[in-house]
Amino acid sequence: MKVLFVTPECYPLVKTGGLADVTGALPLALAPFGVESRVLLPAYPGVRDKLTGARKVATLPDLFGGTGALVAGRTADGLQVWLVEAPHLFARTGGGPYLDANGHDWPDNHLRFGALSWVGAEIAAGRLGGWQPELVHLHDWQAALVAGYLHFDRSARPDPPTLLTIHNLAFQGLFGMAELASLRLPPTALDSDGMEYWGNLSFLKAGVRWSDHLSTVSPTYAREILTPGQGMGFDGLLRERQHELTGIANGIDVTVWNPLTDHALTTPYSVRRLPAKAANKAALQAQLGLPVRPDAPLFCVVSRLTTQKGLDLLVAALPRLVARGGQLAVLGAGDRWLEDSFRHAAHEHPEHVAVTIGYDEPLSHRLQAGADAIIVPSRFEPCGLTQLYGLRYGTLPVVARVGGLADTVIDANEAALRDGVATGFQFSPVEVDPLAVALERACELFADTVAWQRVVKRAMTRDVSWSVAAGAYLDLYQRLLATRLPDTSPHPAFT
Ligand code: ADP
Ligand code: GLC
Hints:
alpha/beta, 17 helices, 495 residues, binds alpha-D-glucopyranose, 36% helix, 9-stranded mixed β-sheet
């Protein structure tokens, strides 16, 4: 089966969060099932240089205000990548793929990701690059317009089904209605049952309306987004399609995240060589300027610093962690007020809190290896990957009971401890006091070395690889393909 992934990010080429980890790993995990994937993304600065065998496969003479090219290449892991090379849209340095140097959205993001989607639709229709996918897998609003272009141009034969995976409903791709013409979509696209959304146009709504199927990245988030409380204004639209919405929890790349082979670590370790984890803790404490104390429970955070992640609650709960002798190491970047709160906390508690503001992939690995626990107090979390890295590294997750966090961590309550199934700590509701209580529970269990080690071993032996999720995606792909009968009229309804 041939599948085209369309995405704005892909690890190790360009990453701002978990979306990149997913689109970098899932195609590789699908390969053993006979899925031949290609990943289409923009050629941001430096991306082409990370590919081997990069070569132009098509010219794009009129790509939304300039000339572009389609470039094919491979990553070191053998991922087949296609780049939309369009200097007028993507050859810019700023604050990552979406933002200018001042942290504002690029004003022409509709054109940038409209162009990505348009190229995706051309490939899907078999008109570009000499390779036609049998199915197109779209990721987030930046790719969602592929479904719009295919909806209005039904000439593709065969007509590949589209699956839109929503990684985060908070990002809806909203732009002024006047932008429609520049996106080469007909005026009817803005009908209220089209992509019009409260006086704007929404790329995400185009995907929700016109993709053949929708998925999101955990079963619990798939249920949550059907409710007004978590649906972010899209719950009504999603309820209309709830029978075509599937929740599949993410896995992680267990070769990139393997404490036995991870080059970022001071000392490799595994579940059978667990004492070596302590060397990573000591090295991390020393590197961060924290007292090197094996008996102090060391908590970490690796996160974007935004309201979603609930880290303001952690700032408020911090005195109770400090009172228990806990240490906290934070790595993150994002909203200025949160960065400042953590800087302030480090200043107040220099013996207990170390904060690194920035994005640092190797340090994120060292934190996962050296800490005893990782805190993820998100207000909502479609899946979350850092708690999965925590499980793999024996760094017990302390998580809010929402979304994928609820699905992937088993709370160390009495019954779960007795049955030997606990892997971390959950709290609910997502407020300061329940978080502080969970942190205190973690400190208590940490003091009981034997009990703690038992939970660590259980966490490390949980299967967090992509194999389960890849099988679920394959099933879904096959169901979608089965709805496409050869030579029928375009887009038969999927049931
Ligand atoms: P989200 O995609 O919402 O940010 P996830 O938990 O799914 O949340 O994925 C976050 C990814 O980004 C993980 O791979 C995490 O290790 C990484 N990450 C987040 N912040 C940083 C940072 N400051 N430095 C390095 N890696 C980070
Ligand atoms: C989004 C979500 C996160 C999820 C990631 C990958 O960024 O916020 O929960 O793990 O996508 O699917």
